[in-house]
Amino acid sequence: MARPPEPHIRARLRDEAVDYVLAHGFRDLALRPLAEALQTNARMLVYHFGSREGLMREILFGLREREDARIQAWFQAGKKPRTLSEFLRWLWQGMSARSKQPQLRLLFELYALALRHPKDYPGVLEDPLVYWKRLTKKASRQSKADEAEATLLLAATRGLLLDLCATGDRVRVRGAMQLLAQFVESRREHKRGGTRDEKPVVTGKLARPGHRRKEVSGVA
Q: Are 35 and 47 in contact (CB under 8 A)?
């Protein structure tokens, strides 16, 4: 009889694997050296994650869960409800930090793999739009998400982060993010007929509990 899964061991291995790939990247990642670094063996990694691709997906979801926790802590720490433009500026300040560069490089490495082998990496490319749709829906307090706005914010944020990784020009790219935040503010003022106060973002978890693919932050 097969041994039943042990969730606490799987969670620990995933967390340690996240730390490992942040330090070493996905390039030429093989199960055996990773298993040795985690003080286990390749067979146990396959047992818990199914395959190398399954482990890589779980590593991304682990990164997104960490980012989601950081985002929710920021929302909840505000003395008044946060706005979408405030979120964009804060998000950029954190994600453009030099300490985040390994995470960003890892993210784009995994995007490249998902583009080549989409069936092996379900949710990697799709989940961020789902997240941004929920975020814009909460920000505008509408019954239906603004899909065009969510698409624009995702594409712009993802593109600016890629530009930062490619060029390292923080001053120029930060200026572009400031323009995006200003656009969001002016667009919402226009939609409300010229009133100046942007509607606040409702705080609280944006992830749907229990979802099979663990959609969490997915902001990029």
A: no
